[in-house]
Specification:
By secondary structure, this protein is an alpha+beta fold. It contains 24 helices and 19 strands. The strands form four sheets. Strands 1-6-2-3-4-5 form a six-stranded antiparallel beta sheet. It has a six-stranded mixed beta sheet with strand order 13-16-17-10-18-19, with helices on both faces. The longest helix has about 55 residues.
Length: about 725
């Protein structure tokens, strides 16, 4: 993508950053709104007030995130930076010379040269690594640099349906998703097409050489010299074709790697931000299984690019050569092309649709097998194994039915291509023989034409496998669309100034109901002052967990609003809310060390803060006795920890960063013994900096709270204020 930068010296550091982000957006294919960019830069400068020569990477990272760019720091040699620019994205390099910051951007590496954008002059340069090092004031390309690499936050955004649910009216078709996935690879795709054209032309050297040899022999030539020369020339052409094939393999491999990385980066960004309503009626981990379709995309796409593209080009060029031999052969070409089109489009009606239906049945089968493993006790009940087998049998039959429907379409295309091969071979032999008898075609041209037709029709005979790969590719892209179409949480809003004291809360006529479901609660008018310890009580199903979702920004009220420190939660960025609010609910322990499970990527948490949080919940001494201490690797769900230890680990994660609002969803119920007293003493300590809202059925928890807020019973969904009981 072209990068536009005005050719002038920038008078200020602020304008330098503005131009850097405009160029980054152009290079990464991300549209940058100038107004949003200026606001983001001003906010980043306020939060990182150091001179640009010291804080430029922090400002790039923070501003880039708000603009849809993932900017990461890089420390290494210029040579390594150039390699990354060729594979991952543009690399930004700052230098502070004479107190004036200069900046360059390595756009990409092409061969041994680098495309470098110099922001001081606004010019784009093509430099060798040595020349680039001299421009950056470095000794050589192995000199150490501090830089930043930019990539789009959502590199698979071209696959999105933009708000339309997957598979419903308005969603993007599989073919459009496929084109969207390949859009970022368009430069290399053009290169693959050029390679295929070159290979197609060079491959025709064999039939043309045979034509020359047959013609030479037919006219009485008995000299070896022409044969030897012809053999060396043919070897040269085929050697060049082999070299191009090798380069083509390399380019396709790079494309496969980039597609994998793009999908991983896109999903790693999306999945933590998926709106929780997306998983109200479907299981998240089962949906993520669709990620494995990227492997099918890699393999099927590679096969089609390597073999399919070459076959198409060889066939097209070969048919052009036939048309040059005689006008009747041009007619033969046209009829052959029409027949091939009929096989692909006529006999292949609904092929993509049936392939997608087959894929859906496959995932339904996998989902049921996962259900069996996920609930082992339930399926060990009397009758459970038989039920598991019965349901699996039903789903297996559904898959076979879908597969048979798809194969019927594929089989008629295979039969059609084989029939065309037989008919076309006989037709060309008869037509070519007639033209030779009529002396309108030489014997050498007939032999060469037969070789070309054999090549073309051999490709047609293999069309069924290529078409199956294409249908699998389309179905796989559609399955990835399932993931990229998941609705994301809102990204708008303002920052929220962090304070020392606990947060205040206020509910204004808050109501909520699930889509297409009953009213959960309504008319909540509550106030919670900073530092209060409040119990949220009510019968099961009264909406306590839903209210916790609202406070953490997982859902929004269907009526009314909630204020945090006097500001409507809907006006605050979710990142800002969650930096000051911590919620503890179910067991969410991932496969990683104890330290990683407490820190959760919050680099500002020091080792001492992690240890202090574990000590506050009585876990530090217990974990230090483990063979690997705090570096003990836990499995998904918390093993080898006990259920009580896992609960306390979740609490340690929540309090480690000293949140201003701590919301507990029945996470204290079930703790017992001296550990329970220690945890409660920590959470309810008047010196603790948080406001505490604890949904609980436990009498001891309720007794320690300053007061209670009572949720209405399920059968009494009415409007109005609800009771508040003060201890």
């Amino acid at each position: 993508m072209a990068t536009h930068v005005s050719a002038r010296a920038f008078p200020s550091r602020e304008s330098l950053l503005l131009n850097v982000f405009e160029a980054l957006g152009g290079a990464c294919g991300v549209e940058v709104d100038p107004f949003t960019l200026r606001e983001s830069l001003q906010r980043a400068e306020r939060e990182n007030p150091a001179p640009i020569s010291e804080a430029w990477r922090l400002r790039l990272i923070q501003t880039g995130k708000e603009l849809g760019l993932r900017v990461t720091s890089f420390s290494g040699s210029l040579h390594q930076a150039a390699q990354l620019a060729g594979r991952e994205g543009p690399v930004v390099i700052f230098q502070n010379a004479d107190a004036i910051a200069r900046c360059w951007m390595i756009l990409e590496k092409t061969g041994r040269r680098l495309r470098v954008l110099d922001f001081a002059t606004g010019s784009e340069l093509s430099l060798t690594p040595q020349e680039a090092a001299a421009l950056f004031g470095l000794s050589d390309e192995n000199a150490w640099i501090e830089a930043a690499i930019a990539q789009p936050l959502r590199p698979c955004s071209d696959l999105e349906s933009h708000g339309h649910p997957h598979g419903q009216h308005g969603s993007v078709s599989p073919l459009r998703r496929l084109l969207g996935l390949l859009h970022a690879e368009r430069r290399d795709l053009k290169l693959v097409v050029l390679f295929a054209i070159g290979i197609g032309i060079l491959t025709l050297a064999t039939p043309i050489a045979v034509e020359a040899l047959v013609t030479n022999v037919a006219f009485g030539g008995a000299f070896m010299q022409p044969v030897i020369v012809l053999s060396f020339v043919l070897f040269g052409f085929l050697a060049v074709a082999a070299a191009i094939r090798s380069l083509k393999n390399y380019v396709v491999e790079i494309m496969q790697q980039r597609i994998f990385i793009r999908v991983v980066a896109d999903l790693a960004y999306r999945l933590p931000r998926v709106h929780c309503s997306a998983f109200d009626r479907q299981h998240g981990p089962e949906m993520v299984n669709r990620f494995f379709e990227v492997l099918t995309i890699q393999k099927a796409g590679s096969t089609l690019l390597m073999d399919g593209m070459s076959v198409i080009m060889q066939a097209f060029i070969g048919l052009v050569v036939l048309a040059v031999y005689h006008p009747l052969l041009l007619g033969f070409d046209l009829i052959l092309l029409l027949a091939i089109g009929g096989i692909i489009f006529g006999l292949g009606r609904r092929a993509i649709t049936t392939s997608i239906e087959e894929s859906k049945a496959k995932y339904a089968m996998a989902s049921w097998l996962e259900e069996i493993v996920r609930h082992p006790l339930a399926f060990k009940l009397s009758g459970g194994p038989d039920f598991a087998m019965q349901r699996a049998d039903q789903m297996a039959r559904a898959y076979l039915a879908a597969r048979k429907t798809h194969f019927r379409v594929l089989f008629r295309q295979i039969v059609g291509s084989l029939a065309l091969q037989a008919v076309a071979s006989v037709a060309f032999l008869g037509l070519g023989g007639f033209l030779v008898i009529q002396q309108q075609l030489t014997l050498g041209q007939l032999v060469a034409g037969e070789l070309i037709v054999t090549l073309v029709l051999g490709s047609v005979a293999k069309m069924g496998k290529s078409l199956e790969n294409f249908y699998d590719l389309a179905a796989s892209v559609d399955k990835l669309g399932h993931l990229v179409d998941l609705p994301l949480e809102r990204e708008n809003g303002e920052g929220h100034e962090a304070r020392v004291e606990g947060a205040s809360l206020r509910f204004h006529e808050v109501a909520f109901h699930y889509e297409g479901s009953h009213l959960v609660f309504s008319g909540l008018n509550w106030s919670i002052t900073p530092g209060e310890r409040v119990a949220l009580v009510g019968p099961n199903g009264s909406g306590k967990s839903t209210l916790v979702d609202l406070l953490y920004g997982l859902r929004e009220p269907t009526a009314g609003h909630i204020e945090l420190d006097g500001i409507d939660l809907r006006d605050v960025k979710l990142d800002a809310v969650r930096s000051q609010v911590a919620t503890v609910r179910s067991m969410e322990i991932f496969a990683g060390t104890i330290v990683e499970n407490v820190r959760m990527g919050r680099s500002e948490l020091s080792p001492s803060a992690v240890r202090a949080a574990l000590d506050d919940v009585g876990l530090l001494e217990e974990f230090l006795t483990l063979p690997d201490g705090l570096q003990t690797v836990l499995s998904t769900g918390g093993g080898p920890l006990s259920n009580g230890q896992a609960r306390r680990l979740m609490l340690a994660r929540a309090i480690a960063a000293k949140p201003r609002l701590l919301v507990l969803d029945e996470s204290l119920d079930g703790l017992d013994g001296t550990v329970r007293e220690r945890v409660l003493d920590t959470l309810f300590d008047p010196q603790s900096p948080w406001t505490l809202l604890a949904a609980s059925h436990d009498d001891e928890v309720r007794r320690r709270c300053d007061r209670e807020l009572c949720m209405p019973p399920v059968e009494r969904h009415g409007r109005g204020n609800h009771a508040s009981k003060t201890h």
